[in-house]
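> tool_call: predict_assembly(chains=two)
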Amino acid sequence: MADPEVKIFDYEKVVIGEELGSYEYTLTQQMMDDFRASVEDPDAPFPTLGVKHDATAFAMVYDDPIGTVNAGNEVEFFNPPIVGKKIIVKGRISDKYLRRDKPYIVLEATAVDEDGRMLEKLSTYQLKKPDELGKKWHPEQQ
Amino acid sequence: MVSATEIKPGQEIPSVTKSITTDSILRFESCGILDRENIHNNPEMAAKRLGTTYTIASGRMSITFAAESMRKFFGPEVFNHTGTVNLKFLRPVKAGDTITVTGVVSGTEAVDGGTRVSVDLFCDNQDGNRTAVGIGTAVIS
């Protein structure tokens, strides 16, 4: 059953600057190990990238039945997270625009740990019409 | 760790090459705190939403590969605290692909606390097709 707190996403109703709220979780050794194994880098310091802070904040507020494709990411690194520490994330929708008649939103999330250390700031450019990219990638299948 | 005086425009940063597998895509997705299906871990959803016959790797995997390349150049004590990566995704990355990240220093500028070095970043697959392009930066004190 759908979470009653989660709203159906409607691009037309999105307001630039809309807050997505905050959430927290504890970084586990398992998360760190899985992340490092997945990217074949035993020293990869930011498993937070695998948590997808901004997209997670969005998914906690919205159900998007159309789906999305990630068109780009911007990330700033401040301090690597520490296993066992609580991470607090705040998200928002920082922009919304049409490019070549395709709808985009920009999600943004900042993460600090329980000691107040700034960890990471992440932005994602989401194309809210994923079938358009499918047509571009595989025109023969349309 | 490199110093500002050693860095010149046109200088190449260490490249990294990664093999993308179904397991690596799924394992990356398993790092999330929500248990949800998406175009990265559910082939039916990828088919429905993208029209593809395969799932695609998260763009954040390419961000991580580019960050590794930058970290190897600047050193973790610099890049992990001042680094940025900005990528635009151009083509899908899927299981069976091999992605190579390369980068070239594009410029330097004086900023508070040191010198910001900019690097043009490129991700290419095994066929020589560009999958992502962008810019990374770090500040050397």
